[in-house]
Amino acid sequence: MSEINKETILVIDFGGQYKELIARSVRTNGVYSQIVSSDISLDEIKLINPKGIILTGGPKSVYDDNTIKCDKKIFEIGIPVLGICYGMQLMSYCLGGKVKKGAVGEYGIVNVIPTDNKKLPNPTLISLGKEWGRPFRALMSHKDIVTQCPPGFSITAFSENNIAAIENNQKKLYGVQFHPETSHTEFGNEIMRHFLYVICGAKGDYHLDDYIDREIENIKKAVGKNRVLLGLSGGVDSSVCASLLSRAIPNQLTCVFVDHGFMRLGEGHEIERIFSKKKMNFIRVNTKERFLCKLKGIIDPEQKRKVIGEEFIRVFEEEALKLGDIPFLAQGTIYPDIVESGDSAGAVIKSHHNVGCLPKNMKFSKLIEPLSGLFKDEVRIVGRKLGLPKSLVERQPFPGPGLAIRIIGEITNEKLDVLSKVDAIVREEIGRLKTKPNQYFAVLTNTPSVGVKGDARTYDPVVAIRAVITSDFMTCEYATLSHKVLGKISNRITSEVSSISRVVYDITGKPPATIEWE
User: What is the pLDDT of residue 274?
Assistant: First the structure.
């Protein structure tokens, strides 16, 4: 997505897990953000002419020989810089401060104590006013610490044992050891807004009002008179993608719904019912046995995703051949898919079937991914602007590989049958709540447990229930469901699904876990 006429905040990536969350936080506050590699040159930065620069966190240590660094001159060109976590350490190290490995790491929620701003020449990024110049809770995730800030810098906040924030207000250089981009940090958004609007002087000209018109023109220009094949899953991303493409290239779009058999109970029929009525060429391909055969004996989650990803493409290619010459493959890929699949300097958290698993020998000549620069909340906004129903736009995320990655271990027809019934119960019961978690589902583990039913001993797999609260799907907290609700879910599962006699509830946040189990 091109935003060359917008004010831009550059997010320089050092492999931090929250780089997209930083970029999303900037966009949510009305300023366009662009993620770039840490090897970006000073000339490239000057060409972009950003309003400000944010340095992300990262897994390395700044004093290691093979660490990821940046051009030190970015601190001398007059553009405001905010270093977060590793970014603060890198700024300190480059400008003459001291960084070393801490005796004890800080992970999770930590109290941050701002320095009394009366002792400093100006109000700081951390202590902006009477209302929130008090100690606050913030998310930390680091082992290394800054032990001495660079010349010209002031310490503006401490944690219990370490320096938590530094700044050189005269040169507009700022560092925070915590993560203001996450919802776990109190006043995190206020800190980000102050950096964007007060320090960088942004006007806030980023919005999605003209996104649809611009992207339609981009699609028309890229596709021309060619036809496009879209893999339609019925989820939010692919549905918004289908709606956008149908506006841009009516009569050139064919949507293929590959029913791999890993959908939620009854979902395949529901998708066919909804989309077969739309003004598009809709094709449903039932391939359950084919996918099960390909996945036979496979237990590694990454291998599962890669097999499913390649088989998706093969089905698309076959359907394209039946339909004649269709050179373009469209996908509902969004920004977080690319992030977690190990794009840029980050580690592979999990490969998404439509990103990290695309085979190199695809027969399609080009990919069309009109949503690849958007976050989930932005995709929902575009969906509403396109007139899609709320029930579809607000639908909770469902992974492309479906229930295949919610079955731990080898996938069988019997396990799919069990999990689809269990998952339907979970969704039905939690769906009754007035205030619902943002995502909730069941996992069929490969851990058997002894139970008793009808005076007989059982030894069946444990079912895990997962329900989370999140605004960004990059971080989450577990939903504190009542014991009454959890008890009812457990009773229904163990009563209605004969092969299950133990149910557990997952109370892990992200981090350290991911939302999905695989």
Answer: 79
